Amino acid sequence: MRASWTGELELEFGRKKLSTQLIRSYTVAPWKIQRSFYPEGEEVCHCILLHTAGGLVGGDRLIAKIHLHANTQALLTTATASKIYRSTGAESLQNIHIRIDEGASLEWFPQETIAFAESQYRQTTRIELAPSATCTMWEIVRFGRTARGEKFLNGSWRSHTEVWRDQSPLWIDRQHLQGNSEMLESPNGLNNCAIAASFIFVGSQVEPELVSQIRSTWEDGNYQGTSGVTRSIFGLVCRYRGDSSSDARRWFQQIWQLLRVSYRNRPICVPRVW
Length: 274
Hints:
Oligomer: single chain
Strand content: over 45%
Number of helices: 3
Distance between the termini: 32 Å
Order of helices and strands: EEEEEEEEEEEEEEHEHEEH
Number of domains: 1
Mean pLDDT: 95
Number of strands: 17
Radius of gyration: 18 Å
Largest sheet: 10 strands, mixed
Low-confidence stretches: none
Helix content: 10-25%
């Protein structure tokens, strides 16, 4: 068995004239970053992250630091789905720290994460927002390799996300799913579904009319599963629970489109790796 990884990633985005550019990058395996793309013009920098080891095993640790300077716009995604392999007891850890300066906007859309049965995983994300900065992100997690009939038993998933502005919390979210039949079947757990997903927009007030539009996309979309849309003081949280990662992504892209047009007056541009 291979030794545990301690991967490091540092990205820094700056503005040069009208262009957002990756002005500094530092990676330690298994992190790797592909070259930047500009499919929607120079204002928005698209970056694709790659985990070269293919997945996390017990004891692996990933650390990421991302900094957007003032008035930059960046979209980050991953090249493939992430995998959390079974563990004999040691946790896999991921710690992310994001700083978004005045007027900047980050879109963080990793592809699906697959948590194998008996995996042990913990992640922490801290985001520091300057005034008028925004962050849009999603997380789509499949619990168990359902194509093999696997269920998420005897595993543990923990996630802690915090968003701060001027030393005050804008949004704090803690999740803990302990793999067992009670959690899988409970209406307060997965309710016999395989996927739990969240879409978060934070940094600016969302008008009630936009919330109504987002709810309508679910009602009109013929989606399977259950959903929730909650307006917060400085943002929006949308939840999906079901069995289709494609449904979760399709609905999230509709939400993303409405928000982007509203706050950036720009339609979405789907990353090439999707």
